[in-house]
Design brief:
heterodimer; A: 381 residues; mainly alpha; 20 helices; B: 135 residues; alpha+beta; Alpha-Beta Plaits; four-stranded antiparallel β-sheet; two-stranded antiparallel ribbon; 6 strands
Amino acid sequence: MNEVLLRSLTPSVLGVLVRRGADFAAAEDAVQEALADAVRVWPADPPRDPKGWLVTAAWRRFLDATRAEAARRRREDLVVEEPAPGPAPAVDDTLQLYFLCAHPLLTPSSAVALTLRAVGGLTTRQIAQAYLVPEATMAQRISRAKRTVSGVRFDRPGDVATVLRVLYLVFNEGYSGDVDLAAEAVRLTRQLAATIDHPEVAGLLALMLLHHARRSARTAPDGSLVPLAEQDRGRWDTVLIAEGVEILQAALARDRLGQFQAQAAIAALHADAPRAEETDWVQIVEWYDELARLTDSPVVRLNRAVAVGEADGPRAGLAALAALDESLPRRAAVAAYLHECDGDLATAARLYAEAARNAPNLAERAHLTRQAARLNTHRGL
Amino acid sequence: MAKYLLLKHYRGAPAAANDVPMDRWTPEEISAHMRYMQDFADRLEGSGEFVDGQALAPEGTFVRYDGEGRPPVTDGPFAETKDLIAGWMMIDVDSYERAVELAGELSAAPGAGGKPIHEWLELRPLLTAPPTITE
């Protein structure tokens, strides 16, 4: 049985239950139970209509829970009758679920967890493992999130930008544990792109595909980071790149630029260079200028300084860097790289070591320490 | 079974025998060190003795309550802090002797020149739940 295929039915099944009048939290629990039923039953007895099977199973689970709840409260008339099955607007339901799970009332970590469960169909245990927290903690986070959005009208359109932020967060978390969050983010963004026609949704999907394409080249067999310039580009996934570029071009043609399209454009220019030396840095700087106009984030200006250093020489890059706050994360690493390009190896080694001390994760720390060590060894220290 | 915390210090432990800062090693020596650490954790996982391990950033903040309705006071990081923990690994082993043996193995991780660092690690037993049978 294909588990991903099964999970892809989650949002439309959940949507049907909510449209039938089930409250969101109870419906979501019922769908999770129906998914578990399917995992148990389908291998021996595959259904002809998987979605219909899931809707029936989830609705039964919902009724059971509602009746149990009613009995527990000693109320007798809370029996919900099954409505006549009718055509369900599956596409809209799916989209509404994305909006609900990324609702602005939710904190980012709650929105991520709820999206992975209610839209992605992952179990609480899988989500807990992926984020390295105890299952009980994740269960609480999800049930609080469900309570938070319980009063939100399901038929109100939401803000696509909030959904994109959540999916971006999931993708960036990458890979830890049994669940491949990056692949899951790609799947959820694909599903969203099939549901709504929006250039920034397409832009985010293209961005993810273009970065996902580099995945196997990004780490060495021992787990250490391989920087973009040193990656074996023969290992980039050309099918994903082609798809990403095509999606991006169609989005850009609509002339409604946004930050994800601009970021994807930069990734596409990297993908376009057969060797690192052939990278079109001048165009990349132009895209960073666009991006700075769209977001004005210090991270964008930091990355722009790298691109300026490649396009116009390390001195120009250092000049662009000079305007940025000293405390900006990764600034020392960028400065180290530009000083190295400029031939000042002593300063570069000192800055790499400083950047390593402040690195936000182990892989970067090891990489930066190695860079400092490489220069110090080279200088005969 | 008893749980122990193995603590690695940035500062505060006695100096290691092979005490060379990592950025003065060769890149290959760094890779060998990383591999040793990963193999060690994998081996403990394989033997059913690994609980968890994490590395900590060198700089932190001290925080304390400052009274009703007021934001907490923060201070630091302090450059003079004597005891600075770099990371920890929790193990669940049959005996104190086994915990010491494992800490010794971890301290033998290769450093500059490919030779063991002989780094001092701190071994701290966890306080556990009281036993059911007490007499």
